[in-house]
Amino acid sequence: MKEKHTPGPLYAKAINYIRDGERMPHICDAVGRVVCDGYLKPADAKLFASSPDLLAALKDAEFLLRKAAINWKEAAGMVDSFRRSADDARAAIAKAEG
């Protein structure tokens, strides 16, 4: 299935664009191409850039929770997977919050 969004990783970068005396961020893909150059506040740019990480962490957590809900006995053996998923989610949240 082809993705409908720009695949990550994405990065918030300040490029030579000045608005109200402040450098405004752009969103760039992994090879440095600008994928969003609108009027973004720095906090919005960080959130936008972290969206692929947030989506990946959410998909992983959803998979693990669904699997655990089907078979609780198997869930006890998935502690390392739950910890990894939680760590990935924390990292994505930290990136979003800057």
Structural description of this entry:
It is a single chain. Helix 1 runs antiparallel to helix 3. Strand 1 and strand 2 form a beta hairpin. The two termini are 31 Å apart. This protein has helices at residues 42-70, 72-75, 79-97; strands at 11-19, 22-28, 34-36. The chain is built from three helices and three strands; from the N terminus they run E-E-E-H-H-H. 53% of the residues lie in helices and 19% in strands. It is elongated, with a radius of gyration of 17 Å. It is of the alpha+beta class and 98 residues long. Strands 1-2-3 form a three-stranded antiparallel beta sheet.
Main features:
about 100 residues, alpha+beta, 3-stranded antiparallel beta sheet, 3 helices, about 20% strand, elongated
Quick recap:
By secondary structure, the protein is an alpha+beta fold.
Rg value = 17 Å
Please state the average pLDDT score.
Answer: 76
Number of strands: 3
Q: Proportion of β residues?
A: 15-25%
Coarse structural class: alpha+beta
Distance between the termini: 31 Å
Q: Secondary-structure element sequence? A: EEEHHH
The low-confidence runs, each spanning 5 or more residues with pLDDT under 50, are: none
Spatial ordering of strands, largest sheet = 1-2-3
Tally of helical runs: 3
Helicity, as a percent range: 40-55%
Major sheet characteristics: 3 strands, antiparallel
Shape: elongated
